[in-house]
Amino acid sequence: LQIQGKNPAGDWWQVCCVNGQTVWIAAFLVDTTGPVDAVAVAANIPTPPPAPTPTPAPPTPTPAPAQPTPTPAPAYSFDLILAEQFPEPSVVRIWLYVFSDSELALGGYSLKVTQNGVEHPVNAQTHGGQPDQTWPVQSPRTRFANMKVELNVPPGGTWVLQLVDGAGNPVGPPAEFQLSNNDQEREMYVRYKKR
Questions:
Q1: Which domain covers residue 25, as residue numbers?
Q2: pLDDT tens-digit series, residues 35-87
């Protein structure tokens, strides 16, 4: 190809001939030989084609509102192993058994007892050592226990029993019982095992 002219910036060459036509080629695409400083600016420089319009980026989707971080469940040091009800027609009786793999009974624990959201004060605490039994003779309802509470109140409602330490802090998950006012199964039993 023979250089016939250039644009004023010198970054395009007018060359002859491609398919019998004079054409323009970007200077960075060719290797030139010989003196090119004397090449004259071409008289008939075509208007450069318009720069391509960039395709607009798709709109950024509106981010969904951040979901609140769920409150993690409390990390209790005891697991609720058993929650049962037994026949007792005259008084609300609650049995608690707190133990670990290494000890038959753990002392110093109590229960937070609520009925329909109202707390019943519990002054008793579990004892360590040899556990008691919930029934004086062997029967299908006999269980180990190391604390007993009796409440002479109408039994109807939602009862929630939760293991607490000596300072009243919850250390085990709550157990829930539903009793009616004429309920004949007013004895509630909960068993907690140390993790």
A1: 1-48
A2: 888 888 888 777 766 666 777 777 777 777 777 777 777 799 999 999 999 99
Q: Which amino acid is at 116?
A: N
Listed in order, strand segments (DSSP E) in the chain are: 2-6, 12-18, 21-26, 78-86, 88-99, 110-115, 118-120, 132-133, 144-145, 147-151, 157-164, 175-179, 185-194
Distance CA 143, CA 133 (A): 5
Q: Which residues is 18 bridged to in the sheet? A: 21
Q: Do both 25 and 101 map to the same domain?
A: no
The CATH number linked to 169 is: 2.60.40
Residue 73 lies inside a defined structural domain of this protein: no
Please, which residues have CB within 8 angstroms of residue 120's CB and are 6 or more apart in sequence? 113, 114, 151, 153
* Domain-located, residue 18: yes
Burial of residue 189 (CB within 10 Å: 0-12, 13-18, 19+) is buried
- Give the β-pairing of 88-99 and 185-194: parallel
- Reported pTM: 0.63
